[in-house]
Amino acid sequence: MRDYRVITEEDSLNYKFVILVLLVLACVALSVYFSYYRSEARVYTHVFYLPLILAGVWYMKKAVYVALFLGITHILTAVLFVHLPIELLLEAMVRVGMFIAVAYAIGLVRERFVRAQDNLQAAEEFYRVIFEYALTALCVIERGGGISLVNREFESLSGYKREELQGKKWLDFVAVEDRKKVMEYFKERQKYLAPACCAFKFRSRDGTIKYVNACFERIPATKRCIASLLDITALKEKEKELRETCEKLAELDKMKRDFLNVAYHEMRSPLAPIVGYASLLERLISDERGRRYIVNIERCAKELEKMINRMLELARIDGNKVELTFCEFNIRDVVHEVIKSFEPEAGDKKLQLCSDVPDIMIQADRPKVIAIFSNLISNAIKYTPEGGRIEVMVEDRGKDICACVSDTGIGIPKEHLTKIFERFYMVDTSLTRKSGSLGLGLSIVKEYVKLHGGVVWATSEVGKGSKFYFTLPKEQKGR
Amino acid sequence: MVEKKRILIVEDAAYMREMLTEMFEVEGDRYEVAGYAVNGREAVEKYKKLRPDLVTMDLVMEEMDGIQAIKEIKKYDPNARILVITALGTPEQEKMALEAGADGYLWKPFTIKNLADVIERLLRKEE
Fold first, then answer.
1. Closest to B15 (Cβ–Cβ): which among A265, A268, A273?
2. Which of A91, A405, A429, A448 could form a disulfide with A376 if both were Cys (CB 3.0 to 4.6 A apart)?
3. Which of A38-47, A345-354, A420-429, B116-125 shows the highest mean pLDDT?
4. Cα distance from B29 to chain A (closest Cα, Å)?
5. What is the CATH number of domain B5-121?
6. What is the pLDDT of residues A41-65, one digit of tens each?
7. How many domains does chain A have?
8. Longest dimension (CA), chain B
């Protein structure tokens, strides 16, 4: 079974302790021997430093205990067997003090040294663990291009065990067709002229090609370099899939646009004789009732033509075929012109149609601005019950103007407010909906406003009315 | 009495040819239909044969389209007057027709008044 332990602890060896005890006992024996048989309390004390040094090296500050023990033994034997005069006794005590000081100093130095070594080892271990268990494949590349150190993830990416990687060059893992590219990149990177990351094809042991994103970084003060490789094969595949879907969609979209373009024109063709013959009939028939019929035919044909035109215009916008032609004009004139054209329609429904617009000169595409107002007012008329009120207001905001078309109509539920400007979106698709609307007017408004660099939005309260706002920059810079 | 303007109608749909004829008949004191063509190639041939004062030209036709026919007629006779009558109504297409040499552009559908106005304007420009 694999040993997953990262840090192993060595058991402390007991022979040091045994040696130390033996030495200490030898010192005590010496002490007793010299003082008892030779009545001397001094000549042998240098020997005491040997166990003290060893204790300091092996047990660090604990050496003080050994020093204390030896010191006490020294004084006791001197007192018991030699009967020293008081001055010499004091001298012995000073010696004992020296023992303790020396033991303490050695212990202290040794402890510092050991701690530093431990820290270094711990730090090394810390980084080794990070390296080994990182989720990206890591390898150290030597100066000649050989691989010297790898982590687990690199093993699984390459398919080699680390023992087998001896003598392998890192370039062996780059797919043949990418080698030149990668070498050139590497040259650039060494001069820090290339970004840290580079993508290439990675060839693993069994020959499978994986896409990797690699990052190379020189290890400071060495000629080695560390490479981290991220397997992005799955991402690449997804990307390819998405790209294909995208291309397919674009193709379908183009087919749809082309089809609609032809369809709209084909729909217009039969309208020509309807409108044309109606106008001929109008000259022919003097009968009151007959003329009323013709007016109805003409009105319906006009309605149909308007719908086709809107769809055609949206198709053109989608194909980026609509361009703006700018001229300078007074917004007030435009609003008055539009309102005038809607007066008969508003009159039929007994709607009050009024405006509050100051004189403001703006640079914009005049027909498109007229279309924006027309669409909004036409909508307002459509959705406002008899006796209601429609108001057009324009506010000068300095760099742009903000226009508002408000009505006292049926209103729009909150959840629909942001979607009403979307293509083909209809608030009501039921059989009880208000007929005569495809919901294209507002998307044309949105596109025209967007082309001018403005924004459009709406607020509404169901049952009370709606307010449609849009902004238009006064000047068209850089166009 | 003013001389009647002779008109060549180029149009692939029979109902449109018929209707245009009717319209010119209503305005009979000023216009007369000199002939018909159903595609661009025939239009060029008929133009050379009939030398009309005005050509009404459809754009979408078999064999030779309207744009090509306009170019060939203008090459043959730079003074030819050609009015495009089409359902293709985008500004790009109008520009293309005018660049080919068309003198006017009428978008289907249209009323007799629209037609008369455009022709009036076009012929007046000539003088």
1. A273
2. A405
3. A345-354
4. 16
5. 3.40.50.2300
6. 666 778 888 888 888 888 888 889 9
7. 4
8. 41
